[in-house]
Amino acid sequence: MTAPRLIRLQDTPSAPWRNGGGTTRELLAWPAPPAAWQLRVSVAEIAADGPFSAFPGVQRWFAVLKGAGVELSIDGRARRVSREDEPLCFAGDAAASCRLVDGPTLDLNLMLRGVPGRLLPAVDGERWQPRSAQCGLFSAVAGRCDAAATNAVEVPAYALLWFQQAPASLAFEASQRPAVATGWWLEAA
Asked: What is the pTM of this model?
């Protein structure tokens, strides 16, 4: 099995949005450029109300990492998303806009083009079995990720641990017991 890749948010450059409403840090894009990505994991800081960019043919997953949350309008339907909520999935070509609930937010994005996948909360200490060929963990807090066939890996807060070949199972144990989600599992075929 290939060793997992650890990508820290703090080590990833930030790119401003064209509309000036925020910034994005791309943690992972697969396959690597110049090919068009099929899988993209990023963290966005939303600093102002406004529209989301359209991504035709892409399935988008969205989760709030920090802040009071957002109210999204997706094809005219309102949906409030906070850190306590399950990740939201919607079509990348949907007309989507955002209104901040109470100040800026930090948000996790999983985008999939032509491959199935999902984003779901990681429950502290519970073992998870990925259903896809590739998978990862985005940590909200520091802890240890235990893969079935490898040694446990120390993961800092706000980092992506990515497995190019998904192990049979994974578990994440937080160093401290947070009041909300410890992290999110990601997977893609």
From this structure: 0.94
Domain boundaries, the chain: 12-113, 117-188
pLDDT tens, position by position, 49-79: 999 999 999 999 999 999 999 999 999 999 9
Which residues have CB under 8 Å from 2's CB, separation 6+? 163, 164, 165
DSSP string, 123-141: PTT-EE---SSEEEEEESS
The CATH number of 12-113, from 2.60.120.10, 2.40.50.140, 1.10.287.110, 3.90.226.10, is 2.60.120.10
Q: Phi, psi (5° rounding) for residue 10? A: -65, -20
Residue with tokens 């000036």: 20
